[in-house]
Amino acid sequence: MSNTDSIDLSLLENSHAFLNEAVAKVLVATSDIRHWQFAILNLVQSLELSLKAALSAIHPILVYEDIDNPKNSLSSIRAIQRLENPKIGGFTFSDRDKTRIRSAIKVRNEVTHSGFNFTGQHAAANFFEIFAFVSDFQRRRLNTDVADLIPSENFQQLLQIRRLLDELVLRAKNRIAEEEVDGKFVWACPNCGEDTFVIEDGADICYVCSHAEAVVECAHCEQLNFESAMESFFESLDTDYDEGRTVMHNSYGYSNFEACPDCVSKIMRDIQEQRVQEEFHRLEEEYHHRNA
Ligand SMILES: [Zn+2]
Ligand SMILES: [Zn+2]
User: Fold this and answer.
1) 180 within domain boundaries
2) How many domains does the chain have?
3) Is the model's pTM score more than 0.90?
4) pLDDT at res. 264
5) DSSP state letters, the chain
6) Which of 49, 109, 176, 242 stands the most exposed, by the fewest C-beta atoms within 10 Å?
7) 99 and 8 co-located in one domain
């Protein structure tokens, strides 16, 4: 599968060019923080091209969203699903990798669509998380050792910045220990991936990268979750849009339409079952009516 002969070279070479550019931007960013955003933009571009290169190695048509109508190339989330499909790629991605990729794409979109404002630590942590994924993916799936691609002096400097980040992680862990934060209040940070996100007393902040994010309770299972992980199932209910107002026809017994990912899938199944039941009763009544 990772036979270089069958990999679309333009995708692979572009993924390498963007990776190199990303590293170059990091080195400038150490003196001018604004360059972090270009580093991340280039890195996410490299990530997306890497996923496509791996799909293209299986079959070139697989880089399109709709293989029957090959016009638009697919999103990274779709690319991962396809690579994971046992009948297509059979790759495995850890939950952590998937979270990392989703977060990278989110950051990229924020950088592209809004005046993105972040601290150097926040960006660096994010960068190294994605960089680690891309280099691992390039090595395992695309026969490329990224250390061979990047000019060695750049690579050395990159490692120094990485060591600085390790130092930050160490300090954050010491702070957590000093403050005697209970382990159950320390989560993996959705931005930098380090186990340094503290939710005790509503702190809701990462001690390494200063990423702040609200933590909310799921109304359906009472578990705490990152607000960004919560999903809405409003679209699955029976609603109509009328004169600028959304009219609810059937909420299937739910009043809070946000849920954690675990609950959302259960709720969707429940709604589906209720729908089938209702349809069954309707048909039954119709039958009785006709035969009365
Ligand atoms: Zn963090
Ligand atoms: Zn829940």
Assistant:
1) no
2) 2
3) no
4) 92
5) ---GGGS-HHHHHHHHHHHHHHHHHHHHHTT-GGGHHHHHHHHHHHHHHHHHHHHHHH-GGGGBSSTTS--SBPPHHHHHHHHH-TTTT-----HHHHHHHHHHHHHHHHHHHS-----HHHHHHHHHHHHHHHHHHHHHHH---HHHHS-HHHHHHHHHHHHHHHHHHHHHHHHHHHTT--GGGEE--TTT--S-EE-GGG--EETTT--B--EEE-TTT--EEEGGG-EE-GGGSEEEEETTEEEEEE-TT-S--EE-HHHHHHHHHHHHHHHHHHHHHHHHHHHHHHH-
6) 242
7) yes
pLDDT of amino acid 120: 65
In the chain, which stretches have pLDDT less than 70?
Answer: 1-8, 113-121
Which residues are near ligand 2, the ion (C-beta closer than 5 Å)? Answer: 218, 220-221, 260, 263
Give the structural domain span for 282.
Answer: 232-291
Does residue 123 lie within any of the structural domains? yes
Task: Look at residues 152, 170, 188 and tell me which one is the last residue of a structural domain.
Answer: 170
pLDDT of residue 96: 84
Minimum-distance ligand to the CA of 210?
Answer: 1
